[in-house]
Amino acid sequence: MTAFADLHRADEPLLLPNAWDRASALLLAARGFPSIGTTSLGVAASAGLPDGAAATRELTLRLARVLGSQPFLLTVDAEGGFSEDPDEVAEFARRLWEAGARGINLEDGLGPPGRHAAKITAVKSAAPGLFVNARTDTYWLGDGDVTRTLGRLDLYQQAGADGVFVPGLTEPEAITALVEQLDAPLNILYSPAGPTVPHLADLGVRRISLGSLLYRVALGAAVEAMAAVADGRTPRGAAPSYAEVQALSAQEGSASGVPRRPGEGAPAGCRRARVRDGVGVSSRCS
């Protein structure tokens, strides 16, 4: 089992923040999060592209190359693999692995489940160590039927998926049903309107992703700050200093040099992890 896979079997769920560039990833990692994911919406929107556009393939790979050398464990939102050809998806996954990514999200878009299963099998063959998080969109794009969701996820775990992901699912009863009937660890997308992180943990969820939430919150904060200045008010909320952001560009392969304000530290219940010579080493932090 890899260091990244181990994070899904820990005492507490893996709380996964999703970054959209190097600065956001390094600042999040400096708070003690052992793994950082990417957000496809953040990557696409930052480049003026819609989420899901095939044009984001190279942007996604480029970001993986930028982040893959950092001491946190990187997992990449790869949409549907940017192709319907399993071999092409596998080649893209192999390049992500070579860039330093240790996980990949592959979504089915409610397409034929057999085709998605073929992509998963091809990826595991091309990059056996890459953690494949197989996403189904039954609750994101469909009618949210738990039986159909279970059928797709079971097929994906049989195809070799290491984890399964159901964005849009917030009903505790349905979450419990999936946890009880699946072998692969379940990933749920955090929603401010849904269960809290402790509640999701109690339900048996093993991974909690933030998706595009942090990116959207950052956009909202920028607009609100400008509105405050225009109204003669002082912007509210914490912001890194100019020097702190400037220091990020001087870091080579390390997120530990980001300055912290007094009293700042890792989030409660997190687990730090690093990879040395391919071996994961983790320790609890609080």
Write the layout of secondary structure elements.
Layout: H1 3-6, E1 14-16, E2 18-19, H2 22-29, E3 35-38, H3 40-46, H4 56-67, E4 73-77, H5 86-99, E5 101-107, H6 113-126, E6 131-135, H7 146-158, E7 163-165, H8 172-181, E8 186-189, H9 197-203, E9 207-209, H10 213-230, H11 242-248, E10 271-276, E11 279-284
Parallel strand pairs: 1-9, 2-3, 3-4, 4-5, 5-6, 6-7, 7-8, 8-9
Antiparallel strand pairs: 10-11
**Count of folded domains:** 1
Helix content: 25-40%
Could you give a short account of the major beta sheet? 9 strands, parallel
Order of helices and strands: HEEHEHHEHEHEHEHEHEHHEE
How confident is the prediction overall: mean pLDDT? 90
What general form does the structure show?
A: globular
Number of strands: 11
The low-confidence parts are 254-286
Structural class from helices and strands?
alpha/beta
Gyration radius, rounded: 19 Å
Instruction: Look at the structure and name the CATH superfamily.
Output: Phosphoenolpyruvate-binding domains
Strand content: 15-25%
Whole-Å distance between the termini?
Answer: 25 Å
CATH fold name = TIM Barrel
Assembly annotation: single chain
Number of helices: 11
Task: Describe the overall structure.
By secondary structure, the protein is of the alpha/beta class. The chain has a single domain (3-219), classed as TIM Barrel (Alpha-Beta Barrel), CATH 3.20.20.60. It has helices at residues 3-6, 22-29, 40-46, 56-67, 86-99, 113-126, 146-158, 172-181, 197-203, 213-230, 242-248, and strands spanning 14-16, 18-19, 35-38, 73-77, 101-107, 131-135, 163-165, 186-189, 207-209, 271-276, 279-284. A 9-stranded parallel sheet has the order 1-9-8-7-6-5-4-3-2. A two-stranded antiparallel ribbon has the order 10-11. Strand 8 (186-189), helix 9 (197-203) and strand 9 (207-209) form a beta-alpha-beta unit. The protein starts with a helix and ends with a strand. Mean pLDDT is 90; it is low at 254-286.
